[in-house]
RsmB/NOP family class I SAM-dependent RNA methyltransferase (Pigmentiphaga soli), 530 residues
Amino acid sequence: MEPPHDAAPANRPSRGGDRPSSPARRQAEPRGAAPRDGAPRPSPNRPSAHRGPASGDGPRRPASAGHPAAARIDQVRSALGEILQWAGPADQVLSRWFREHPRLGGRDRGDVAEAVYDVLRHLRRYRHVAEGGRGAATRRLAILGLAATLGADALRPALADDEADWLERVGAIAPESLPREVRLSVPDWLAEALAIEPDSDALFEALNRAAPLDIRVNPMKAERDAVLAELRAADGAPRAEPTPYSPFGIRLQGRPALNRWQRFTDGSIEVQDEGSQLLALLVAPRRGEMVIDFCAGAGGKTLLLGALMRSTGRLYAFDVSQARLARLKPRLARSGLSNVVPVVIANENDPRVKRLARKAHRVLVDAPCSGVGTLRRNPDLKWRQSPESVSDLCLTQRNILAAAARCVAPGGRLVYATCSVLRVENEDQVEHFLATHPDFELLPAGDILAERAAPPGLAGPYLKLRPDVHGSDGFFAAALQRRLSPAPAQAAQAAVALPEPDAEQAQDEPGPGADLLSEPLDSTDGDLQA
Ligand SMILES: C[S@@+](CC[C@H](N)C(=O)[O-])C[C@H]1O[C@@H](n2cnc3c(N)ncnc32)[C@H](O)[C@@H]1O
């Protein structure tokens, strides 16, 4: 076995999920800030003092068009020119740009992607300091991104004298002298929304760094220790460590091209951020249960849920996106699971959802969200989201959660999760849900996770992960349980006046005694295929 380690950046979890990225996406991913030769790269804030022969008061030297660095600046400027129109997710736009530039090799693509992602991470700061320069704004941004990733010295032969002077002036700016939101490169609305979080500076700084690559061992096919040993024994393999919380995870510091490794093709491993792995542990499905992954997407969490069920029972993978669910298919084939039923639904009130009213033992709502917990991988989201888009998402989340809750059997578990660190998408949603659904109660997430031997650091009512504290993406999850009997207040209310049943719901919901958790599962129960 030898995990390849020589090619394009590895599969990375992506926006709002943990699907493996497409080859184009891999090309689009930055490879981290480490220089190839191991030497520190001067950042745009700290360029090398060496100016070369062109420095001084002599005649102004124009940019050298023939130098390879000049071509690199042009490439990054061109890619940024498209991405900064915000017409679509940066990874998709960059993938398209690469397709339109087929002559670029792997190294070229890596350099461009790294610089582009660096600019997206630090866009506000770079725009601020770029104001002091001359010429096209995107060229100045490209120079800053490349100076941070390749080093200012590598660029100098391609810079005009005034550009080199400007880059040196930028390097002399003390970060502390910049306004906080500029220094951290964060939009005002996001800085304000996260001001209530402890040590939000550390959170923003961590979100501005490239993420390591987490993989997950498929418990149906492999042992983590064995995979770790193989990785460590491989020639030139990346540094591999067990993830601190998930018993299935391995964190890689390098960028192996995992999709050519046999452990990947045979389904022994998947790419999955540790936070997503913990989410499945919070759902904690058991053999033979009926489980719904309500927003399954490309099935990152579905795969682990199915494996935890040892491929027994039935696991519905719902999503409104046919394209996303289609990406689950090859992953399912590799995984060896036979208990997963993908279902494209029209919306959360699809009749096929209603047919499962009060039938599922576990329901996961991995809700569509702002994704600000994944800024390490998707830094463009902080510029593409806004208070208005977040508020629209909150409404969608509320509707999906309410619809998904109807599927939960008495005594069953509903897990609500986002890859956001915004309170409005997280605690506020759960509090609103509990206030409007007295038949549900909160189960302390820390207690559930402790059963799976997760070490301290995850205690508390909610699962709340931060990159600066836990090393994973930002995640939130709450475990809710439908009570076996109505809450006392609800029962008292029912005794006074029986509420009018919702016509639709009355049709769908089985009567009292339909507690599947106390009955053996009928294989035809809730059969959506019929
Ligand atoms: C955060 S992503 C899910 C990621 C996925 N669980 C994974 O692990 O890869 C949210 C998903 O919700 C889906 N979605 C949006 N609206 C929905 C709805 N009304 N009902 C079900 N799914 C919905 C989106 O298509 C998207 O795939």
